[in-house]
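Appendix C reproduces, verbatim, an entry submitted by the partner laboratory led by Prof. M.T., so that reviewers can inspect both the input and the predicted structure.
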Amino acid sequence: MNNTFQRLGRFLSEIRAPYFAAIALPIVLGTVIAWATEQRFNLSIFVLSLLAGIFLQAGANMTNDFFDQQIDEDPLQQRWAIIPPEQVLQGAFGFLVVGAMVGLYVALATGPLTVALGIIGIASGALYSAPPFRLSGTGIGELLAGTNLGLLTTVGAYYVQTLQVTPLVFWAATPVALLMAAALVLNGFSATKLQRGRSLWSRMGRQRGATAYAVPALSAYATLIVGVVLGHLPQESLLGLLGLPLAAGAVVGAQIDRFSFASASALAAHLGTTALLVIAFLLYAGLH
């Protein structure tokens, strides 16, 4: 029994199950926006979209680990090889295939834009870690990942419910994407990542981590304010500003060289702000 639980724990660690919230919450946000603004909600499409997103994210996580293991042969990386590389690759392929099949079913039930968004997501996920491109640590990779986990997922979840795309959902999704990209940038300044020495962040130096995070993070909250002022977002969206102290905590943590705390705060800012936006649109639906 203990051996079974150990294997399960290793498996969940490999697919990074605790981080599935990073893709699940944007899907929930897009779905709630569709319901709040267009009174559209299809439960089966929502569940299938959620499953497709989680399977594809698990596959992407395992793909990243496989290519990291192939490139990083130092003992620091080997400590994390809790599953043989060939099993990691097999698992990644399995998750990606299942996720793609579920996504294809959703696309057939909705529209061609779903296919396009799925292809963009899978392609950019591969470019993030796979050679010869390996965009992780370049700034472009973090922007792509933020776009995947923030913009594409939120807009895609909205589209499969409404079969349309509106400026409002883009304005709501942009802060989510920026906060995700910012969290990934900050993670690039961790001691483990800097020790590998190949990334843009290692060339910038750890002391600049706070600035590298603060720029996209503060831009995320500025987007909320500008969106409300210009009338593209409902006033309830300002509830998302309550996530700002978490982002500030990440900046302070980076400034005092406590990057574990800073990374945790950055992830909390992303998840917390996304959850607050979900609540904001639920309030909007109830008040209008």
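The two ends are 53 Å apart (CA to CA). Additional entries are available on request from the coordinating office.
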